[in-house]
Design a protein that fits this description.
This protein is of the alpha/beta class and 162 residues long. Helices cover 23% and strands 34% of the residues. The protein has one domain: Dihydrofolate Reductase, subunit A. It has four helices and ten strands. The longest helix has 11 residues, at 25-35.
Length: 162
């Protein structure tokens, strides 16, 4: 299964200066719990924002970039296209998570290659310079919604026959 996992404000802000504009430890724990053991696909800026040269531990990291680094990165595979990144991710795990950034989210939604979304809707509005792409929410069915401190965690599945 290919899933988007993201946190956003009511207006869709997902980042500011290549970082999260909020601090929600419970959301970070949910991110870790959901992605652990899976493959995570991200753009180069998201990878750089992790400040972890070997990527997220206990997950296979796939970075989409036209310029791979000139050094080896254990636990990180570099791919030059989204479709390649997803196929690589599927080779490591049944669960592939698209973790950002905005351009990568937009590509998977546009190419209709995502089955589910795990969205943390942050309660407060924050200033930011990056927004989640527009989504036709009618194509998605919410199957779970859980209130946490500072955010609501929602699981959505793509509707069939739409």
């Amino acid at each position: 299964m290919v899933s988007i996992i993201a946190a956003m404000t009511p207006s869709g802000v997902i980042g500011k200066n290549n970082t999260l504009p909020w601090h929600l430890p419970e959301d970070l724990k949910l991110f870790k719990a959901n992605t652990m053991g899976g493959s995570v696909v991200m753009g180069r800026n998201t990878f750089d924002s992790l400040k972890m040269p070997n990527g997220l531990p206990n997950r296979h990291n796939i970075v989409i970039s036209t310029q791979a680094p000139n050094f080896a990165t254990p636990n990180v595979t570099w791919a030059n296209r989204l479709d390649v990144a997803i196929e690589v991710g599927k080779g490591y795990s049944d669960n592939v998570f698209i973790i950002g950034g905005a351009n990568v989210y937009a590509q998977v939604l546009e190419q209709d290659c995502v089955d589910a979304m795990l969205i943390s809707m942050v309660d407060e509005e924050y200033e930011g310079d990056v927004k989640f792409p527009n989504v036709d929410w009618a194509k998605w069915e919410m199957i779970e919604s859980v209130q946490h401190t500072g955010f609501i965690f929602k699981k959505l599945l793509k509707r069939k026959n739409i």
